[in-house]
Structures are given as C-alpha cells and as structure tokens.
Design a protein that fits this description.
Shape: elongated
Strand order of the largest sheet: 1-8-3-6
CATH architecture: Sandwich
CATH class: Mainly Beta
Distance between the termini: 4 Å
Largest sheet: 4 strands, antiparallel
CATH topology: Jelly Rolls
Structural class: mainly beta
Strand content: over 45%
Helix content: under 10%
Length: 124
C-alpha cells in the first residue's frame, strides 16, 4: 500500500496531469479530496468545478486505459441530505493486476479561476 498526502495545491483552469508507478500487488486506487482549504471548492461559487480521471498503463506508458472518473464537482457549499456541508469527495476504482504498471491522474479545473485541492491518494 502506498499513501501520498497532497498538501493544499493551487491548480489552474485546464488539465493538470500527475503520474507514477504502481506496486505490482496493488489492485485499487482511492482518491480523497478535501473541499475545505482556503481557495478550495467550498470557498468558491458553482461556476468552478473539478473533475478527476484515473488511467493505468500496462505497456510502460505507450497507452493508458481509463479506469475511473468522478465529477465534475461544483464549488460552493454542497449539503448532504441532513443539511451538513460535504467536506470531501472521493473516487475509488479497481485496477487490473500486473507488473510495471503506471498510473496517470488527470485533474480538470473549469471556471473563472484556479482551485486549491488537498487530500490523499492511496493505492492498495
């Protein structure tokens, strides 16, 4: 299992791509995004959105297969059915076993300005 903590990071409008290798035994990826940092989704309006896509390469990066996606999640305070604000959002996806696999996370920000994201990426 690998855990990567993502400190508050300002992502510009457009696509930001992050990648790395996966342990041979990993079969799932979980991404949790904190909505609450200054400049994060809860501090913005619904005009700002964030979406995620996870892709995995089984051929050393020659091609990537989409494994899961989430969003777009809009800015502003979004309430659950009990009237409490959502503090985070999550994406969990299964991945095929293999050796030498690479993962690519694409974060797409849309709207009038950058969005601050923070959270974690866990592979297991």
């Amino acid at each position: 299992m690998t855990t990567i903590t993502v400190p508050p990071t300002s992502l510009p409008v457009g696509d930001s791509v992050f990648g790395g290798s996966l342990d041979d035994v990993d079969n799932q990826i979980a991404i949790t995004v904190d909505r609450t940092p200054a400049g994060g989704l809860n501090a913005l309006t619904a005009d700002s959105t964030v979406a995620f896509a996870i892709a995995v390469s089984y051929d050393s990066g020659a091609t990537y297969d989409l494994q899961g996606s989430g969003g777009p999640w809009e800015g502003g305070t979004v309430l659950d059915k009990h009237g409490n604000p959502f503090l985070s959002m999550a994406l969990l996806t299964s991945i095929e076993p293999g050796t030498g696999r690479l993962a690519r996370l694409t974060v797409t920000v849309a709207g009038p300005s950058a969005v601050v994201v923070a959270g974690s990426i866990v592979t297991s």
